[in-house]
Amino acid sequence: MEMRKRDKRRPWVERRLLGVYWLVSGYGLRAARAFACLITAMAVTALALMLWGLPNGSLQPKTTGKVTGQNISLKTEQPSPELTLTGKNRISWDRTEKAIRVTLNAAIFRSPSQNLTTLGTFIEMAARFIEPVLLALAILAIRGRIRR
After folding, report:
1. CA Rg value for the chain
2. 68 burial class (0-12, 13-18, 19+ CB within 10 angstroms)?
3. Per-domain boundaries in the chain
4. 3-state secondary structure of 71
5. Is the pTM of this model over 0.70?
6. Over the stretch 38-66, which tens digit does the pLDDT of each residue have?
7. What distance in Å separates the CA atoms of residue 145 and residue 11, rounded to the nearest whole number?
8. What does DSSP assign to residue 69?
9. What is the chain's mean pLDDT, rounded?
10. Which of 32, 41, 146 lies closest to 104 in space, CA to CA?
11. N or C: which end of the chain has fewer CB within 10 A?
């Protein structure tokens, strides 16, 4: 109970950090709470990617070239990711599958990212910071349960 006691000598940042630690994993004692926070964060990330982060379709590079005698000059253009779909068209099974794949890669596997819109890139960066921390808290809570 000493951890929960308000101590004015501690900086407010440390008090807030301890409050978040208690809320997310119960000071490392609540594995179910930590996993619930992880699943919730992943669901919110996948929904945000579906709505704002994934571009319209697959972005295939376009290569054009010119042959002059024995010389060949090629130019490859990578289209910029754009999202012009309306609200109802942004939610589909295909986009859901892509969003879940990007979310899992951000949280666990750390594979190279897919082409995302600018907002999608920021969503993925936030997920790459938050979700591994939540996963580590869940693992530590399970470790604490096993050791007791």
Report:
1. 22
2. exposed
3. 10-147
4. strand
5. yes
6. 999 999 999 999 888 888 766 677 788 88
7. 30
8. T
9. 81
10. 41
11. N
